[in-house]
What does this fold into?
Amino acid sequence: MEISQFLGVTPKLTEYRIFSEKIPIGFDGFRIAHISDTHSRPEFGIFELIAQKKPDIICITGDMIHDDEKEAPLFWQLFRKLLGLAPVYLVTGNHDLWRENSAETLRQIVEKGGILLDSEMSVLEKNGDKIAIYGVGDPFSKLPSAIDRNINSEFSRLPQFDGYKILLYHRANLFEKIKNFGFDLILSGHMHGGQVRLPFLGGTLAPTSAILSGRMVFPKYTAGRYDRNGCTMIVNRGASNTLLIPRLANPPEVGIITLHTKKQA
It folds into this structure.
């Protein structure tokens, strides 16, 4: 790892390949760019990493703009450039909803061309085949009981789809609560890669907003790929370096997920 990546300054590209019999042949090779947690100030180089991979769609899984930032020119600059590459799908994170003018921010995202999924499904079509991408916004509470109620309420609203299903959801630390809702692939963020990563131990710290919904030290889901009960979750380490605790061995990340058809034996 380069020293600039070790210090969390230069972003890194991580690639994943997903094989499933449920992925139709028309989507074999379909490429998804995934970032999360730009927190108003995405690191320089994020756009270039995404552009070089020529994704079919781009997904941003929340905390786009920090709640205490009145203006976010770097985010909007990146967002406009991404819209020129491919359709951009987004869901809210906790900081997006904590903002005083969150409704206005979300309105601007949609007005500029972003596809904001708020307990909604969008059907993607390619080469005559279809898959579905869902998005559920942040459960927007610091109380575990309210989070559980919000999750059950929002997921119960989702339309059905007979085929391969992708979910965008901000809080990776809530994977245990959402893994059995029938999604094949979940893209998530929120955990900032654990902020400081140690060899063989992974991420060491969770965001303070996770204090009532998971471990704060050595949290369970911080970065990378997790496979449970036929569901795969990929957690983005985040695309910014804005916290007081510096990133160490944990560079900002662009994820590239390529779907592949797995033929039955």
